[in-house]
Amino acid sequence: RPALQPHRAGRALLDLPGAAAALGEMAAAAVALRGPWSELEGVAAVPPLADLSVPPAVPAAVRRRLGSNFLGIDQLWERIPEAGSASWVARAEEAVEAAVQDYLAWLRSRRSVATLVALRERGECRRRSRVERLLRRLPELGQRERELVEQMSRQLVTDLLQEPMRALRADPDGSQAEAARRLFGL
Fold first, then answer.
1. I want to staple 112 with a disulfide (CB 3.0 to 4.6 A). Which of 93, 97, 168, 181 is the partner?
2. CA distances, 86 to each of 40, 80, 82, 102, 140 (Å)
3. Which of 32, 36, 28, 33 lies closest to 8, judged by CA?
4. Cα–Cα distance measured from residue 162 to residue 165, given in angstroms and rounded to the nearest whole number
5. Number of C-beta neighbours around residue 95 at 10 A
């Protein structure tokens, strides 16, 4: 076949029947469609073809007929030499296993959520109670001073609970959450 002319190399084909008929003039083609390209079944001379569609747009009979001249999206993976390195299947299995372990660890850490909430609520309840009592004892404080006391007390509770909350969020097996429940009487 003659080499493609630069002006013809990147032809966008919107007319699928016309595109199927024009395949005989092409050295290769790539498609990415959202539906089947059934017009290909009647085309005798199909050049090497890459189908990036999901699900495949190229009919199964045409894919079989093209054999190694067909490239589907599922075949776009990096081939790794077998000698000295793991196969792509082994790498995929390792990646899946790592993701499963991460997910299971995340699930286990979710056990601490109730303890996190209870600890935060306990701190906030006690903070409000102490601030209300203080403000009743200091009626001469102006609005600005009252807001500063509120703000300082909220920040103090946040600061005091920062490390325990961080530890509970990272609790891999719920043991720290159990210890916090016992320690704080939650």
1. 168
2. 38, 8, 7, 22, 75
3. 28
4. 5
5. 10
